Amino acid sequence: MTDIVNSVGQILITEEEIKARVTEIGERISRDYADKEPLIVAVLSGSFIFASDLVRALSIPVDISFIYASSYGDSSESSGQVDIKTGKGGLNAEGRDIIIVEDIVDTGRTLSAVKQFLFDKGANSVEICTFLDKPSRRIVPIEAKYMCFDIPNEFVVGYGLDYAYKYRQLPFVGILKPEIYEK
Ligand code: XMP
Ligand code: MG
To answer: What residues are annotated to the active site?
Structure first.
């Protein structure tokens, strides 16, 4: 059987680095929102591992909701159009202080659409907490108040991020061997 770790050419961020940083960001959010009871909105699918670790690093009460955001276009470059879906019953954002939890900000298109969507639904405030940021790729100006790691312009997998729906379960962030992408 193929071991998925064998497909990884380089580890960019280790499991230990992730744990330490997520704990730190969790403590910051807990301090900043001490009197607010924010609503965490995790953007699926990519953020599911980050969101689950992040909420366990929070010491304040929070509500947790999920939305699906996907942009039309090919898999490695998002287009301008973002499709946003909420679960059954919708999402009650009215008057809430929301923290969007995302796996990665790339062009910024997805998050700017999600942010607008939440304001349209009556949110009181919307901040962004992203696991990764590729600032060199930004097209739409958007800034995350909380960010775990800045990365160079490389396609990465692991800790929720996929390549062709795989590798999400890797406990670290890595770059696949070139032959995997060329397949
Ligand atoms: P935008 O460009 O809208 O896109 O900020 C954010 C979405 O693009 C995907 N993305 C990646 N996915 N490895 C991935 O697995 C990457 O290196 C990467 N860069 C961008 C991702 O779906 C994210 O939500
Ligand atoms: Mg994503």
So the answer is: 106
